[in-house]
Amino acid sequence: MIYTLSSGLGFNPGSEYNGKKMKGTSFIPLTFYGLFGGKSSFAQLGVGYTAAFGPEFIDSTGSPPVIYKKFESAYIVSLGYRYMNKYGTILQGYPLLQWTNNPSNKFSFGFGFFFGFAF
């Protein structure tokens, strides 16, 4: 079994919908992974936390509208696949479940994909 920890910084610049500007958000993810498997193919179990910072606003593009606070936190659990070769290439894909402290958008499902290099 192999354990890994990853972190990063992210920024979503926002978008425009029906003439309304949706503001951007910065976020900091932190994820712990347990890898089970062989030389290059692994089952990957991940648990993580993400802190998001942005302006408070209401996204009324959906029904019901989603209210975003200046600070929001999210917890994530994922189970997926990771490929790592001897040259440091990493590919991973995983479905994930996310729950947040936002009462108008408590749970969501998604999919993650990553391509990178280990050094």
* Class per helix and strand makeup: mainly beta
Number of strands: 11
On the 0 to 100 scale, the average pLDDT is 88
Helix content: under 10%
Number of alpha- plus pi-helical segments = 0
Domain module tally: 1
| Alpha carbon gap, first and last residue | 20 Å
Could you characterize the architecture of this molecule?
The chain has 119 residues and is mainly beta. It is elongated and about 50 Å long. It has one domain. It is built from no helices and eleven strands.
List keywords for this structure.
single chain, mainly beta, two-stranded antiparallel ribbon, elongated
Helix-strand blueprint:
Layout: E1 2-7, E2 10-12, E3 15-17, E4 20-22, E5 25-37, E6 41-53, E7 57-59, E8 66-68, E9 71-84, E10 89-100, E11 107-117
Antiparallel strand pairs: 1-5, 2-5, 3-4, 5-6, 6-9, 7-8, 9-10, 10-11
Question: Concise description?
Answer:
It contains no helices and eleven strands.
